[in-house]
Design a protein that fits this description.
This protein has seven helices and 17 strands. The strands form four sheets. The protein has a ten-stranded mixed beta sheet, with helices on both faces. Strands 15-16-17 form a three-stranded antiparallel beta sheet, with helices on one face. With 339 residues, the protein is an alpha/beta fold.
C-alpha cells in the first residue's frame, strides 16, 4: 500500500520527456534545496518566464506536485521552481512574521539568490519572474511583492494573506499585479483575518487596490458552477485601471476552505491555470500588450495538447469524471462530461 501511495504521489511530477532536477544553493551558510521543472520546449536561445511555487507551513517542495504546475509549464513554456523552506521548531516554514516570529532565516534573500542562480543556469526573462504559493507560501509571495519587487513582476496567493509585519513594512517599487484566491470558510487562514497575526482578505485587497491606483469598485462576474457537488461557488473580482495597466484581482470562493482549488475543494476553477493566465499578462513594467478578459477567453479556439486526470495521468475523454484539458496557450480547462 505504501508503495502504491508513493507511485501516485510521484506521477504528477513526471512529464513526457521534460527535465525535473533536485538542486541546492548555499545562502547564509545554509544549504537551501529546490526542485526545478524545465519544459521540453525550452530553447537556450529564447528567454523564458520563471515561476516560483512555494509550499505551505509544514509542507515541502515535493508535495507541490498536487498543483499540476508542471503541466501548465509544459504547455505555456515557462520554468517552474519549487523551493524548500527551513525548519522552525521542527516545522518547515517561510519567515513572514505573524506566527513565524522568532525565525531568523532570510527567505527574501534566499529567493533573490535563487533567481540569480537559476538565471545563470537558464535563459530567464528577468522581467517575467513570478511567485505564487499555498498558505504560508502565499504569505511569502506577498512578502516578495513588498520586499523584492525589483525582481518580481506579479504574485498570486492561494489561501494566504499578509501578516501585520509584511503589511506595515510593505514597500514595493512598482505597481504590482496581485491575484488573491481564497475561500470564505477557510478555517486555517480566516477570510476576516485576525489582528494578532493575519490581515483580512478585504484589507489586503484594499491595500493593493490603493497602491496600484486601481478603480475602487471591482467588476464582478460569476464563474460557472460546473461541479454542483463541491459545496462552493466562485466569483471573480477585478479592480481595473491600475498604474501601468495592472489589476488587483480576487477569486472569492464562497463556501471554500483551505484548499488549492482544482486539486481539492472547489472544482469550478483550477488555481494553477488561473494563476498562469493572470501572470502571462504582465511583466515587471506592467501590462504586456493588450489586456484580455480572462472570463471571456474561448478555450475552444485553442489547440488541445493533452487530457489528464486529477493525478496528472494522460487519459482520453471519459464520462462522469473530472478531467483537465491542456491547451497550447497554457490554459487548462476542467470538465466533467455528463453525457
Amino acid at each position: 500500500m505504501k508503495k502504491l501511495l508513493f507511485i501516485f504521489i510521484l506521477l504528477p511530477f513526471l512529464g513526457l520527456g521534460q527535465q525535473l532536477l533536485y538542486k541546492s544553493i548555499i545562502h547564509d551558510n545554509l544549504q537551501r534545496d529546490y526542485i526545478i521543472h524545465v519544459p521540453s520546449s525550452y530553447d537556450i536561445n529564447t528567454p523564458v518566464p520563471l515561476v516560483f511555487c512555494l509550499h505551505g507551513y509544514g509542507g515541502d517542495s515535493f508535495s507541490m506536485s498536487y498543483t499540476n504546475f508542471n503541466f501548465v509549464s509544459d504547455t505555456a513554456g515557462f520554468i517552474v521552481v519549487y523551493p524548500q523552506g527551513t525548519l522552525l521548531q521542527g516545522t518547515t516554514h517561510w519567515n513572514v512574521g505573524g506566527w513565524t516570529l522568532g525565525s531568523t532565516v532570510d527567505d527574501v534573500g534566499f529567493i533573490s539568490s535563487l533567481i540569480d542562480s537559476v538565471s545563470s543556469d537558464y535563459n530567464i526573462d528577468e522581467e517575467r519572474v513570478y511567485s505564487t504559493g499555498m498558505s504560508n507560501g502565499g504569505y511569502m509571495s506577498f512578502l516578495l511583492a513588498c520586499s523584492l519587487s525589483n525582481k518580481i513582476a506579479a504574485i498570486a496567493s492561494v489561501t494566504g494573506s499578509m501578516t501585520p509585519q509584511t503589511y506595515n513594512a510593505c514597500n514595493p517599487e512598482h505597481p504590482m499585479p496581485i491575484l488573491q484566491i481564497h475561500g470564505t470558510n477557510d478555517q486555517v487562514v480566516p477570510y476576516i483575518g485576525d489582528p494578532t497575526w493575519t490581515e483580512s482578505i478585504n484589507d489586503v485587497l484594499q491595500y493593493w487596490v490603493g497602491y496600484n491606483n486601481c478603480s475602487s469598485l471591482p467588476v464582478i462576474t460569476s464563474i460557472d458552477d460546473i461541479n454542483i457537488f463541491d459545496g462552493s461557488t466562485v466569483e471573480r473580482h477585478i479592480f481595473m485601471d491600475g498604474l501601468n495597466g495592472v489589476t488587483t484581482e480576487h477569486l472569492k470562493v464562497y463556501g471554500g476552505g483551505h484548499d488549492w482549488f482544482g486539486a481539492w475543494g472547489n472544482m469550478d476553477i483550477h488555481s494553477s491555470a488561473e494563476i498562469w493566465r493572470f501572470f502571462s499578462r504582465y511583466d515587471i513594467n506592467g501590462l504586456i500588450g493588450t489586456e484580455t478578459n480572462v472570463e471571456d477567453k474561448k478555450l475552444d479556439d485553442n489547440i488541445l495538447l493533452s487530457i489528464t486526470d486529477i493525478l496528472g495521468r494522460e487519459t482520453k475523454h471519459q464520462k462522469i469524471k473530472l478531467l483537465f484539458y491542456h491547451y497550447h496557450d497554457g490554459t487548462v480547462e476542467k470538465k466533467i462530461m455528463l453525457d
